[in-house]
Amino acid sequence: MLARPVAASQAPLLARPYYSEQGTSPIVTSLAHVPEALAVTMPFIATVLGPSAIGARTKELAILRTSARLGCEYCVSSHSVVALDSGCTAAEVSALRVGTDEGDAVFSASERALLGWVDAVAGATGAVAPTAAADLAAHYDEAEIVELTLLCAATVMLNRYCTALGLPVSAATVERLAAEGL
Amino acid sequence: MGAVADAIAGGGMGGRLWLYSNYHCNLSCSYCLTESSPGVRRRVLDAAAILAGAREARELGFTGVGITGGEPFLLEWMPALLAELAEILPVIVLSNATLFTGRRLAALEPLAGLPVRIQISLDSASPQENDAMRGPENFAKAVAAIPALVERGIGVRIATTLEDPAGQDPAERDRLCELHRSLGIGDEDHIVRPIIRRGRAVAGDMGLAVGFDEIEPELTITADGAFASPFGPTVRAGELDTDLLVTRTVAPLSVPAGALARLVGSAESGRDARLGIR
Fold it and tell me: B68-107 pLDDT, tens per residue?
């Protein structure tokens, strides 16, 4: 591993609030090497990926589709569990984990517009397809468009961070996914 | 005033900025916080970085600078740096004083009369006991260097580090005080402090265990980042401790200083809460 996890006993002062006796995310234990970065990154992640004006299910659709497109094993596995806990069915999660639109028929029209937007933002370079933007605008207001786009972009950042550093998927996550047939 | 100056003026954060100039040392003391010895990685802070840190420290509201290591005087440029630092803020520099002979002693002469004090370690009035902790001939070299510095008008303070200061034999304490007075160092310039259970002292099963709640927060800059105390950037089994790390960023100094001021503020609130004041 490029950056060994910082143990709780060595957690820097700014990192300590993010450590938990119940277990600490490898995102935290790796960022703890640079505590001032952790101290702004974790609140940013919590704001962008956590509870907000947009429902958890909608947000997890965007996160999981982004992560699947970027091929991030850590994020796909972790957010498959979060998606299940946010009201997605195992079939929906399974469709999202593919990372293409082939299983999108199971989603509503607004959700398909969002997934099309994610594909255009996270799965391509250069300008984003105008058709994807038009589809999105038909279902979401400006504040939602900004928040969902930031969510997709932040997830891309996390995907590359977790993949590049080879962050490990927890045993509990692997176990839960196996129990769900995923 | 800014948040840093407020924290210093309020007493929540020490007014002295500490800088670890280097980690290597010509000694290998049994209780060394940083496992310093001749062969360790040097991790030198260059003189320009130290001067820049001191200048910004003065602007932020710090009232003094401390240089420690390692043995700072293994760096040839240390005496010249100290003279420059003294124009910015009063300076204290920690040393084992074993290098203060000949050319190196002469290089210190420009420090006479400047607000620079050299804090020299001397752990016992007994050469055998002192040298058992600090290495062969340390006692003889230190007691030779101290009056040589005093004669040249250079400020000197003596620091004695003990396993149990409160339990020190009064007769031994009297012998030590007679010794430092005979070397030209008054009682006001003799400090006695406990061994801190970090670094090499852990392997030796020595000293007092401390955490953030037990220390006086003093911003400490090293080549590895900024720490909450000069007791922070310790090394155990070759690994740097990070439990008292504040930030990896050391310049601009406002980044770690601001972070430590915020930590001090939140810790003080917590202490109050635990005491039931709020």
Answer: 999 999 999 999 999 999 999 999 999 999 999 999 999 9
Note whether B193 and B161 are within 8 A (CB).
Answer: yes
Strand B239-240 and strand B235-236: the pairing is antiparallel
Residue A155 is part of a domain; what is its CATH number? 1.20.1290.10
Task: For residues A84 and A105, state if they share a domain.
Answer: yes
Q: In this structure, which amino acid lies at residue B256?
A: P
**Domains, chain B:** 3-274 (3.20.20.70)
Cβ burial of A141 (10 Å; 0-12, 13-18, 19+) is: exposed
Structural domain count, chain A:
2
Q: Tally C-beta pairs within 8 A across A and B.
A: 39
pLDDT in tens, A108-158: 999 999 999 999 999 889 999 999 999 999 999 999 999 999 999 999 999
A86 and A154 housed in the same domain? yes
Residues A63 and A44 in one domain: no
- Facing residue for B243 by CB, picked from A9, A33, A39: A9
Measured in angstroms, the CA of B180 and the nearest CA of chain A are apart by: 39
The partner residues of B95 in beta bridges, in order of sequence, read B120
Q: Are residues A143 and A99 in the same domain?
A: yes
| A6 vs B contacts (CB less than 8 Å) | 242
Residue B89 confidence (pLDDT):
98
Residues A41 and A73 in one domain: no
CA distance A180 to A167: 22
Indicate if the pLDDT at residue B277 is higher than 50.
Answer: no
For residues A92 and A83, the answer to whether their CB atoms sit within 8 Å is: yes
Q: Chain B 245-274, CB below 8 Å of chain A: which residues?
A: 245-249, 255, 259, 263
Let me know if residue A3 belongs to a domain: no
Of B212, B241, B246, the CB nearest to A10: B241
% helix / strand / coil in chain A, to the nearest 5?
70, 0, 30
Q: Which of A36, A40, A41 to mutate to test the interface with B (most CBs of B within 10 A)?
A: A36
Range of the domain at A147: 56-179
